[in-house]
Give the backbone structure.
Amino acid sequence: MRIVILPSASDVAQFAADIVANQLEIKADSVLGLATGSTPVALYDELITRYQAEQLSFKEVVSFNLDEYIGISVTHNQSYRTFMNQHLFEFINIDIQNTHVPEANLPTKQALLNSAVRYEKSIAEAGGIDLQILGIGINGHIGFNEPSSSLASRTRVKTLSQSTIEANKRFFNEDEFQPYLALTMGIGTILDSRHLLLLATGENKASAVRAMIEGPLSAMVPASALQQHVNASIIIDQAAAAQLSLKKYYQWSERQRSMLAQTGLGSTNE
Ligand code: GLP
């Protein structure tokens, strides 16, 4: 894994935006995997800024979001479709027809199962995900793959954990229905992406970040599955890196990487 520790959350957003920009430069019609949550908002703001400065174009990009709530309509102000429209899609030149968020507002179990199968099929038909952006839950989840999720799981319905419901309470009014189910890409689906880009900022993520990078590979920490991916970049700020025991090594390794890149030898930190 490539572990990049940066001074602040805004440095994380800049660094991640450089990775997205580089991906679009290599392949204008990239398939991007997108995430919701507060963490990627600064990245999306930076991508909008670069689009407005005509440094980036999303004209040919196809996107697939990680997950969507079950039980609220797509037009609900807390649906992940609304989130993506309001934080990114409305401000860039992506073709909205090319943006995919799991279809989860469906009445029956069978309809949800079919939707999950369709989602997997659409990703495959698009050629697979080139670059998947990820956040991490305080309990180590990725997408809505809660602790105990199969590391080989595919897109499916998941019951949210109490800790996730609690963490996301802030987005819903007190007397409002809060979803407790979601349709989410599985860990296996995520691992199929060619490059994983996980962002984490703030001290409340420090323990999950340590478990993801330095803990054992375990279904109890779904993000630890990144240890099995050959091209995973984990970009974190100092606060989120606070509990890492090999922090100095990761920083040293990154310095070597840039030195080797300058000499043309290249470097891999996987
Ligand atoms: C949600 C999303 C995840 C996200 C996580 C962390 O539950 N399903 O994809 O990574 O929360 O969110 P935040 O960045 O707000 O801490």
Observations:
- Helices lie at 9-26, 41-52, 80-87, 109-125, 162-167, 187-191, 206-214, 247-263.
